[in-house]
Specification:
- The complex is a heterodimer of chains A (183) and B (254).
- Chain A is of the alpha/beta class and 183 residues long.
- Chain A has five helices and seven strands.
- Chain A starts with 8 loop residues before the first helix and ends with a strand.
- In chain A, strand 6 and strand 7 form a beta hairpin.
- Chain A folds into two domains: 9-110, GMP Synthetase, Chain A, domain 3, CATH 3.30.300.130; 123-180, no CATH class.
- Chain A has helices at 9-20, 24-29, 43-46, 76-90, 113-122, and strands spanning 49-57, 60-67, 96-100, 124-125, 153-157, 165-170, 176-180.
- Chain B is mainly alpha-helical.
- The chains are: A alpha/beta (183), B mainly alpha (254).
- The A-B interface holds A 69, 71-75, 102-106, 135-138, 156-163, 167, 181, 183 and B 24, 38-39, 41-42, 44-53, 55-56, 123-124, 126-128, 130-132, 134-135, 137-138, 141-142.
């Protein structure tokens, strides 16, 4: 029997928003902007692209992009703003404003299904590949190894190469790997 | 927003920003000195979270001030007497036990304070709290684990942890002080009445320290002054280092 995959509510809402947008071509255009630290994830996949508005002002128009940070101190946000502006400028939109929105706070639930698949292929375990501990935090073992799919793994560090990741090692294939934390 | 409330909110956002940037900078001093690589990275991560919070608070303060200043002006162009951070945050990094004990005190404080700030009628402050709460869970688990490990560890690590607790305890009373500014904001549902949080903080800290075989100190002395700009000598030295590049090259971008 085929497993029916259920899309999380947050994910469904985001997809609805994108499909109903009157600037759908801009949403598509921004798929080319990737997270500089995790280049297989677009800002849409990561869920930090929150809104795109086209504001008509007199003769001209202005594009307002709303993004939200994953973690408070994520140093990639400045880069991402620059990349968003550059992508739109090159596509013929000279007047672009990127706004940072803090509320609602980013959740890893917003990550797209494609993004999760790409992450795994890239060697990073996506948030759902570990069962959280009783505090709702990253467990100390059993995140699924993205290389050999073993669950026989252990946490090496709760904090990884970027704020959004923890570090694990697989006891079967011995490879270390990043786990994208659920938050 | 009335003028009085706006001024108070500006002051409040600045205070919370000062707490965050000072502690964030202190933690960052451990980068490349951690006891092992993963711990080094962990410290860098926590420092980033705090510096990120500072940016959010300062950006909001700058927006309220509306006088052309930016977040950078708040962080880099004010002197120690203008800073309003809690003294606990500016204490030097000390040895590893000292830093972890301070971190535990700060993390438990964030754990009891942020859920209250989340209820703020001020949307920006509530949004910052929502973001910070999630990260704080990870911070607390780490500092708690370290204090347990060090306190209940070797004779040497136990001795150092107890010493750190005794030395820092007197700086924790200030965490629960209120003044006119914060009272006004608390009365208006914007700020947190921290005076009501000491019991919860004390209970959580005591239980962790006891488990770590550390004696919870009696309340015998207290130092205050951070919120009025009277600091220990440590802050000036720290700011000198933190601000020198920005002040030497004003307006420089890279």
């Amino acid at each position: 029997m085929n497993e029916i995959s259920l899309m999380p509510e947050e994910q469904y809402q985001r997809l609805q928003q994108r499909n109903a947008a009157d600037v759908k071509e801009l949403w598509d255009l921004l798929d080319q902007v990737k997270d500089p630290e995790v280049p297989v994830l677009s800002i849409w996949d990561l869920g930090i692209l929150r809104d795109i508005e086209r504001i008509v002002e007199g003769e001209g128009e202005r594009i307002l992009i709303t993004i939200t940070p994953t973690y408070s101190g994520c140093p990639a946000m400045d880069n991402i703003s620059t990349d968003v502006k550059k992508a739109l400028n090159e596509a013929g939109y000279p007047d672009v404003t990127v706004k940072m929105s803090l509320s609602p706070a980013w959740s890893s639930e917003w990550m797209s299904p494609e993004g999760r698949k790409n992450l795994r292929a890239y060697g990073i375990a996506p948030p759902e590949d570990a069962d959280l501990d009783e505090d709702g935090l990253t467990p100390d073992a059993h995140a699924q190894c993205p290389h050999c799919s073993s669950r026989n793994t252990r946490r090496i560090s709760e904090f990884g190469s970027t704020a959004c990741k923890a570090l694990f090692q697989c006891n079967d294939c011995n490879e270390p790997f990043d786990y994208f934390k659920k938050i | 927003m009335s003028d009085a409330i706006k001024q108070a909110t500006l002051e409040y956002a600045t205070r919370l920003g000062d707490d965050s940037v000072v502690l964030g900078h202190r933690i960052s001093e451990w980068v490349s000195y951690g006891p092992f690589l993963e711990e080094d990275i962990a410290y860098g991560n926590v420092a980033l979270d705090y510096i990120g919070r500072a940016r959010m608070y300062y950006t909001y303060a700058a927006e309220l001030a509306d006088d052309g200043r930016t977040e950078d002006d708040f962080a880099y162009m004010r002197s120690d007497r203008d800073y309003r951070n809690l003294l606990l945050m500016e204490m030097p990094r000390g040895d590893f036990a000292y830093s972890q004990v301070r971190q535990l005190f700060a993390d438990v404080y964030a754990t009891v304070m942020l859920p209250e700030l989340l209820k703020s009628k001020d949307e920006t402050l509530a949004a910052i709290a929502a973001k910070a709460i999630k990260e704080t869970k990870y911070h607390l688990r780490r500092s708690r684990d370290w204090v347990l490990r060090l306190g209940d560890g070797t004779e040497e690590s136990h001795k150092r942890t107890q010493k750190a607790v005794d030395q820092l305890w007197g700086y924790t009373h200030e965490l629960f002080d209120m003044d006119e500014t914060e009272q006004l904001l608390a009365d208006n549902g914007i700020g947190v009445d921290v005076s009501k949080l000491r019991d919860a903080w004390h209970a959580m800290v005591s239980s962790i320290l006891t488990e770590a075989t550390i004696t919870v100190p009696e309340d015998s002395w207290a130092v205050r002054g951070g919120r009025t700009g009277y600091h220990t000598e440590n802050l000036g030295h720290m700011l000198t280092e933190m601000q020198i590049v920005h002040r030497s090259h004003p307006g420089c971008q890279w």
